[in-house]
Amino acid sequence: MPNRPPKTLATLMVVLFPAPLLALAAKAEAIVVVADTRGLTGWRAWYLNLYNDNHLLFALLTVTTVPLLALLLGRITSWCMGRLGINLRTRQLAEH
Amino acid sequence: MDWLYVTMPISGIQVLWPGLVILGTGVGIIGGFFGMGGAWMVTPGLNILGFPMAFAIGTDITQMSGPSLISTLRHGRFGNVDYKLGLCMVIGTVGGFETGAQIIMWLERIGKIDLYVRAAYLVLLTLIACLVFTDVAKRRKKEREARASGRQLDSMATGIEWHKTLHRIKIPPVMNFERAGIRCSVWLPIAVSYITGCLAGVLGIGGGLIRMPALIYLVGCPTYIAVGTDLFEVAISGLYGAASYNYKGRAELLAAVIMLIGASIGAQIGSVATKYVKGYGIRVFFGIAVVGCGISVLLKVIGAGVPGLRTLMDRAATVLILGLVAALALYIFMKFITGVREERALLKESARAQAAHA
């Protein structure tokens, strides 16, 4: 019994205002994540503000950072691999 | 022990950073060896480390292009990458991804999308595993027959030879892919990558798991060229995926960077290890990885069908995937160590012989 009034109200709302309710449901699905910048300073604050303000610039930052860092780390690890004294130019095992 | 944990700036979760480095090393080794991005191994690993699923997928895709790029450069120096073939395939892959996305939207409209996708994934993995092991069995049979008739089997001989039939279809323009050693209609790699891209788009995976065997059995690439060329493609398509997930705000760059430290070492080890394992050896281990991946999907299907078993099955699938990753990475690492030791001993011996000769 105590559940009846809200259920009735919800049914009435759906019948009377279907479009706003459907729009609300769609918005609830698309959850927006906001990073907590309170008490942060320096690069951390800049980075999180960038995330909160502009996802496009944030995505651009990521797609440039990852390959550049990969190239740098790749060079370092490649140099280390070269110290092993093995042939890193050719592959002798020929098989399909 | 607080220093072992790092707070992820966006999601705010605390993550054990050595876990990220170990996971990165494992995926680097396996990816560099098999020629794939390894989304199927990293996502459950990140989830275990505490990432919510949406962030686990986004972070996984964000880091994917990094180790793939390092492995591509290493494989490129060995001459294992056919860049011309890779670029042709990027065209088909992008088109295929878009078609796959449209199919997913259509499936969403008719409902039961999860069931269809998981069933398709399972069928596909079973087919790939059957294909790989049939090929290996046929090639072994050829070896036995050659030995019985007192001759040696050509090192470039293969078990399954579908690519030879496909190469006979000469729809212009016909191109020479020198590094891969194949001459075929340019439409063959484009069509193959379109289909694999489409499947990857539908299944929501990077595609290396499908593209690697497709490059071998349909395009006709030698195994090590398939590995290198596929990594080249993963490096490009991974950047597209990273941009997409970061635009949606569901990725942790910090975690990707920490993983990259381990992955850069792992990618070198995995790529160099292909020097010491024959093409068919790589195919066998690839087949084992596919079987493991297939069993984990089957466990998830069972979990989805029987709600009471869901938690147990999900956990079993994750343990299986991570156990498989650890076992394969360890095996490849051991192959690398043995190979380096043997090569160094050989080089020392030949230097000594040269000195004695002089």
Describe it.
The complex is a heterodimer of chains A (96) and B (358). Chain A is 68% helix and 0% strand. Chain A folds into two domains: 1-31, no CATH class; 36-85, no CATH class. Chain A has helices at 4-16, 18-29, 42-53, 55-82. Chain A is elongated and about 55 Å long. With 96 residues, chain A is mostly helical. Chain B is 77% helix and 4% strand. Chain B contains twelve helices and four strands. In chain B, a hairpin with a 4-residue loop joins strand 3 and strand 4 (182-185). Chain B starts with a strand and ends with a helix. The interface between A and B is large, with 42 and 56 residues.
Tags for this entry?
heterodimer, A: 96 residues, 2 domains, disordered N terminus, B: 358 residues, two-stranded antiparallel ribbon, 12 helices
In short:
Chain A is an all-alpha fold and 96 residues long. Helices cover 68% and strands 0% of the residues of chain A. Chain A has helices at residues 4-16, 18-29, 42-53, 55-82.
Outline type of chain A: elongated
Average pLDDT of chain B: 88
Low-confidence stretches of chain A: 1-5, 18-22, 24-29
Provide the spatial order of strands within the biggest beta sheet of chain B.
1-2
Overall 3D form of chain B: globular
| Alpha-carbon distance between the two ends of chain A | 74 Å
What percent of the residues of chain B sit in helical stretches (DSSP H or I)?
over 70%
Beta-strand content estimate of chain B = under 5%
Helix amount of chain A: 55-70%
**Unreliable runs of chain B:** none
Number of discrete helical segments of chain B: 12
Q: Total domains of chain A, how many?
A: 2
Order of helices and strands of chain A: HHHH
Query: How far is the first residue's CA from the last residue's CA of chain B?
Result: 60 Å
User: Helices and strands of chain A: which structural class?
Assistant: mainly alpha
